[in-house]
Amino acid sequence: MADVKHFDPEAVLEEVVRLFWRRGMAPTGIQDVVTATGVSRSSLYATFGGKRELYRAALERYVERWSAPAFRDLAEDGRGLPAIAAFFDGLIEARCSGEYARWGCMVVNAHAGAENADPDVQDVLDRHHERLRAAMRAALTTAADHGQLAPGINPETTADALALLAYGVNIRSRAGADAPSLRATVDGVLSALSE
Question: Domain limits of the chain?
Fold first, then answer.
């Protein structure tokens, strides 16, 4: 007979996301996970695998829970540049206030950490980047259709630049940059794109 789990793997994974997001992979040991979740080491290994597999599952969960909805909203918003401005406003708000302030983005933190050497983690990071770029490109294409973009603005290359700006907002907010300075930077970039 199979061993009955005495914990909810989904709830545990949510707690693990928070732990790795706040602290990163390298400084977080399995004992930290045991302490944070109250689940034994052997149960964690039996359910998720080792630390590497647990981190990857947490990163995938973060992308699906936090990033994917924001990207979908941006891509489907029909306002063009105002949609991009709203995306950055939401990003800055999330990174500078509330429960997750100064945690940055788990994906951006992974780009900067040693975990990015893992090919499976790199795959998650690459897919995330492509989704971010695609959402930016969709909003920029809408902006072009609405006549909002200055002449010569290419939605493809500008999507790359805006994706990098989003990464920068995440890194700078984690380092303590305040919301007004981040908003001023974003406003400056977006004003340069507009007609």
Answer: 59-193
Q: Residues 83-115: pLDDT tens digits? A: 999 999 999 999 999 999 999 999 999 999 999
Q: Which tokens sit at 106?
A: 């788990």
Q: What is the CA radius of gyration of the chain?
A: 19
How far lies 129's CA from each of 36, 122, 140, 146, 170, in Å?
30, 10, 16, 26, 14
Q: Which amino acid is at 125?
A: L
Topology (CATH) of 59-193: Tetracycline Repressor; domain 2 (1.10.357)
Q: What is the pLDDT of residue 6?
A: 81
Whole-number average pLDDT of the chain: 95
* HEC-encoded secondary structure of the chain: CCCCCCCCHHHHHHHHHHHHHHHCCCCCCHHHHHHHHCCCHHHHHHHHCCHHHHHHHHHHHHHHHHHHHHHHHHHHCCCCHHHHHHHHHHHHHHHHCCCCCCCCCHHHHHHHCHHHHCHHHHHHHHHHHHHHHHHHHHHHHHHHHCCCECCCCCHHHHHHHHHHHHHHHHHHHHCCCCHHHHHHHHHHHHHHHEC
